[in-house]
Design goal:
Length: 233
Amino acid sequence: MVDLRQPPNEGSPVDTPAQASDTRAMTRPLFITFEGIDGSGKSTQARRLTDHLRSRGLDPLQTREPGGSPGAEEIRALLLTGDPARWSAETEILLFTAARRDHVEKTINPALKEGRPVICDRFADSTRIYQGATRGDLRAIVDDLHTRMIGREPDLTFIIDMDPGEALSRGLARRSGEDRFEHMGLPFQETLRHGFLALAKDHPKRCVLIDGNRPEAQITTEIAARAEAALAI
Ligand code: ADP
Ligand code: TYD
């Protein structure tokens, strides 16, 4: 089995203290994810951050989960359409993890290896919360499977927080047809919100909590500043 855990910066000059002063201007690849409840503005901010980094001369890859590779996009359709009760949480864990494995193998790792920042709309934190903490306590199973099959975390995660009622009406207004989870209702979204807030607290180094109840451009300014600091640009 191919080990996906290889750190993206392995061998990068910025990891060598002796060379640090010479390489200040160099950027390092960075794996950035967006998380939060449905309709909170993740896709919007992922796109805006990608555009911003492009304007700063970088070549970021924007991607999403579930999906982001041809095989994973096929699994996406199974997961996001149809009856809300179509899959148990346990089956969802397996399907999301299968999609993620393909996405990491085929899309994320190759881009990081080329030195490109990767901006991903949702990743393993979504499985931890949507499957791990809404329909029974399955968090240990999610974490175990993640360790065995994925084995890598983002370098930086923006968790966009906002009122679930407002986010749900924003999300459902899109009528994307991929709204199986949105049809699980408001109490489900409230549970998700608390899960994401707890996650941000548990991982203060990696996770940045963002107030999503503001104009898009204002949110982007905050996110871009954080990303630039992490990228040292
Ligand atoms: P998510 O990816 O979290 O589901 P989206 O980025 O698709 O959220 O946004 C959901 C809807 O809300 C879209 O119609 C989008 O245009 C709108 N939207 C996104 N950000 C904001 C914002 N800061 N204020 C108002 N509406 C927003
Ligand atoms: P997405 O298009 O990201 O939804 P939204 O734009 O509404 O936030 O669709 C992904 C849906 O799948 C979303 O409802 C969250 C859910 N999901 C999980 O339940 N577990 C996961 O691991 C992932 C990646 C997504």
